[in-house]
Specification:
The chain is of the alpha/beta class. It has 33 helices and 26 strands. It is elongated.
Amino acid sequence: MFDAAGEGCTILAPNAELATALFDAVERMHVAAGHEIWPTPHIRDFGGWLRERHVQRQLRDASLPRCLNDIEERELWRSVIRADAAGAGFLEPSGAAHGARRARRTMVEHGIPLSALAAYPTDEAQALVRWNRRFEEHCRDLDCIAADQLLVHAPPAAERLAWIETPMWRPAARTWLEAAGAVMLPPGETAPAPPARRRASSPDAELAAIADWCRFNLRDSPKFRAWVCIPDLALRRARTVDAFDAALAPQRFSLLARDAPAPYAVAGGTSLADFAPVRAALGSLSAAEGVIGFEAYSSLLRMPELQSSAAGASAAAALDLALRTRGPSEATLHDWLTLSARLLQTGSPVAVDAVARLQRLVQVLDAAAGRHPLSRWVAVWVEALQAGPWAERHRWSSTEFQAAERFRELLGSLATGDSMFGERSAASAVRLLQRAARDTAFQAQTGIPPIWVSGQAMDPWLTYDGIWIAGCSEERWPPPPDPVPLIPVRLQRDHGVLSAGAEGQLQLAAELQARWRLRAPMGVYSCADPGDGRSTHLSALVPAGPVSQDHTGPTRPHWHAMAALAPTFERLADDRAPAFAATERTRGVATLRAQSLCPFRGFAATRLAAEELTRPSPGFSRSERGIMVHDALELIWSELRTSARLAAIEPARRESLLEASVAQAIRKQCERRDPGPRWRRREAPRLLMVLDKWLQLEQLREPFEVESLEQGAETARHGGLEFNVRIDRRDRLVSDGARVLIDYKTGAVAADWRGERPDNPQLPIYALLHPEDLVAVAYGKVDAGECTFVAEAARGGIFKARGRPSHLEGQPTFGALLGLWSRRIESLAAEFATGHAAVAPSAHACEGCGLQPLCRIPSALAPDAQDS
């Protein structure tokens, strides 16, 4: 091979993976020979070489049909399937298109005539015949040919050709090469040693064993080179990468070394859409089309590719926080950006680059509104991306740069398909681009390192120091029959499609095993138990020998095992925060409520501002509905003022008052956050019904006058600290002038102010602020399901004609109860002021808390453990 490359021969391999390995081998041989400069070897995969030749011929003869690129071919098959009656019912025609394309290629590669397929009366065969004819008709109309027809129309090659001898060649390609007089290059051979046989307790343990085998051999011999075959690599690629990183590149677990080099590479690649620059590009372009939810815009706003500095990223995060309480659940990107700009005018002093760049992206896209051919859309997209998520492309890593370049190539391929794709709307063009990126596999070029991991059971052709073949269980080796869909199995077997039958798979497996033994002096065959309690055994086809039992190395995630090897640190329980400073501010009743539930929660919620992020909900949220109830009741009682006027008001006037109050409450809420007209229309009748139900309950009370409503923030002082509070309502009873405090609630309510560490000390704090003539405090539950009072009352009849007094927590009078409350509140406030922050939750405090990652509560105290 080295000599053929030096003589200028074009060396052909059956697939791109082998071609890459051969190219690397020639390069390494030049380096080993001491050469400083050499001509680039002409090593190509056969399909790519045929396409290149066709393009060169087109430059000389413009009458030749154009070869469809991969995107065009996939989309053409997809359109054929969707237009057919049999394919109209497919939920996802792309799968059928992939199967039809594969079947057609198999027929060409194995010389299966269409007439032979048409002779079979099965629905699948007849569908493939129809689809194939329509595909050919479309190709003729477009003056194009599919890539599988390049071999049929290929003239003899003028250049010198050589091809590597391997069973991976398809019959048609092998026949053409032999007829073209290409030189066959036989593979190299080594003196084989008896192969090793390994069995692992799980698939993860098998991967760990392979990775450790590579690590030990590289440690003993830095020049060690190995070829590893994992047949189901596509299904467990992420686990494979984790296993090899743990053994060969643990530095990759560092957040600062994501692209650190490693002595191994995994073949096959992953979807181009998964790489950061491409993901950012697709996300930005798709967001500009139609309505997107808050989560999508939030992700876009905080996308690293749109940030130019840490300060800008922090400002974007702050804007995201504001949008969670001021934004709708969904909107167009233009509306999101308009709202963001308005919030920034009154908020952040730091510019948010993400907003500015998305605005420029939207401007570029809006300027190209309408329907255009793809070549026009590609130009618009490139301009928009460079103004938006690709503005910071100078910061890309090597992998990101290569992914972006591959994406540019993809855009270039789309730009050549105007005749096929026609004019499209922006949304349709973006969907096409998304499918193309998702279906395109990409792998960054880093050179071939010492360890090459392949997902193809094939002859590697080159010689290595070691070969490991995984998955050699009796169920999977030789592989079970895997006939090509849509083509009758008998027809496939008659034309030599090896995967169509057990005999062909056995024949291929035996031949590969014979070749593997000659490619490396060290060979290992392994299998793994499924991990579900069943056991498996090595295939009888594997050469006989002793079996090494379970590998005891770490299994995924390996960093847990690495952490277990770390030194033991001294443990220190620090439950004391610094004393509350004079410059700090409490959060009102919420501070003491959190402190009562759990001292650490009081510290974290107030002094660390640790709270769970909310998100805009469709329509009005529960808290917003509660605010509207408060606002509407304030308007209603500002007008009524007394229970007597409530009883005397005429029905028409009552209805008018309710409607006006509801309308104004909704309008006031929408100034803060407007979920849209649909939700406003739905909320009004619901709110009217709830308020009417509440007023009916108020009519049953002892006569009263409303003394104050939502009268603004007042300051309560406990434990040397100040707490701003806002009391919803204070009533004065007509009979004796006694006072009642009421706080509206729109959800579930209970007497949660009782006990030494109450779940909510809100009502006791209100009572201690205005104790004069106080005889009752109550939650007013204003809810569509039930309207009621949950109260602590010194005597009966205050809230219901036959109501009973409460037990006052065992105190003889309401005044004594106030004294008890005062001691509790002072104790809680003093705890908080002195920095008491122990993780000591009450019975149900952990439910819905969300601070467990911060407080590291022992599992025995977690809510699940308590419930069990």
